[in-house]
Amino acid sequence: MQAARALTLEDLTSFCVRRGFFFPSGRIYGGLRGFYDYGPLGAELRKEVLDDWWYYFVRRRVDVVGIHGCIITHPKTWEASGHVEAFFDYLVTCTKCGKEYRADHLLEDLGIKVPALSAEAISSAIKEKGVRCPECGGELGEPVPFNLMFSTYVGPKRTKANEAYLRPETAQLIFLNFRDVYYTVGAKLPFGIAQVGTVFRNEISPRGFLFRLREFTQMEIEYFVNPKKLDECPFFDEVAQMKAKILTAEAQEAGSEQHSVLTLQEAWESGLVKTKWHAYWIGESLKWLGRIGINLERVRVREHVKSELAHYAVQTFDIEYYFPFMGWKEIIGISNRGDYDLRRHQEYSGKSMAVEDDGEAVIPHVIEPSFGLERVLLALIVDAYKVVGGRPILSLHPRVAPIKVAVFPIVDKPEFTKKAWSVYVAVKEHFTAIYEEKGTIGRRYYDADEIGVPFAVTVDGRTLEDDTVTVRFRDTKEQIRVPISELIPTLKRLMGREGVDRGSGAGAGI
Ligand code: GAP
User: Fold this and answer.
1) Last residue of some domain: 326, 356, 384?
2) pTM for the structure as a whole
3) Residues 439-464 pLDDT 10s
């Protein structure tokens, strides 16, 4: 028997474009690198994942509230945050053809490791290994830092004084609003502020389809804790016994890629994860990935080595997914940011960022789970994509499947189509649904399987006699018979929609 061929990036991209999940933005003009538009299925998938994230991390919880900040942000924000100074990648340019490369990616693609991401280390690696322009063989210039923030002008005058930045992370808007939120909701430490929104990074070399974009969506929480209570997490029991594959900084520094399997209790007790709250948020993030259907066997947790830590980070763990065409790649970053951001904003604004806890003024420390939506979607689709009997099936969890129900008449004849259409209209009140009457019923099932529809409802001969329909399950092909009067509650039960239903309208109290 032939072994299943691994999914390639080309397979995935063409599948997603062909079925209307994503389109290269400005495709009729040749596309704009690093920008993708969501098609009809992508837009629904995006909404399902965002809604479930918001439900799980905000509405369901008693200790997290959400905000929605601006995209164009006060320039001082990014001076204070350190992004003006430190948010850059090294760029090398070919002295012959002028092609530009992100230096660390160029070296990585050639299998060359640099001890640190500094101009000196990159420059000497290029010289020692004789690296030349992959395009024309020309000599490469010296690496120069390239700041990733997009800027624009506020108002008609295009002067330096009017320059502002498009946010490269949602996090800073949370820090700017921290005290206002704290006082308006009457919060007490520990508590979190969440935000979902678009961010922009002028990546030197966008690549990997949705993996490295110039415009993308972040789902972030900044969780504020009294620095004396970083190990007092009342929810820790909910994650303590979860096992995770953890690749430590120590192992990587010794040249190993071998992970250890540890419970989060062990990871914290051994001192590997420095604070209990940090271990808790790693656990919660893993739990949510499992909840939306990602196979946790293909997920690992990797600690950042010292040289890759962001300028604000005390300690960072990435949650990585194993992509068959790229290997292990970060989809979520979970950082201990200490009090870096609040202190810097206090210093740059002259406004106190301290709040009262246990009768003392404290500047809280922050644990930050930061999710890239498009990377989560990429992992979801890769994880769900299977070829069974030569046909693609997208085994998406019903919780996030963009279309939940397909409704079909068994054949294209008025007595069936009329009834099936009325079922479709009733189903659509509750779920995203599609209707199709053309083609063989087998063909229509396969089409629905390919876009991940978990349940197909068919109106057949027996329906006309006893008002029942069949419900077919995408993954097992099993069918059950259900009275039409029971169809909606049955589908709701099959979908486990508790999050979606309970989520609407409930505010999070603190
Ligand atoms: N506030 C922290 C922060 O922004 P980050 O590791 O730079 O940290 C967080 O970004 C997440 O955003 C990443 O884990 C990744 O999922 C996503 N992300 C970062 N750069 C991206 C890009 N160019 N394209 C798509 N997603 C990206």
Assistant:
1) 384
2) 0.95
3) 999 999 999 999 999 999 999 999 99
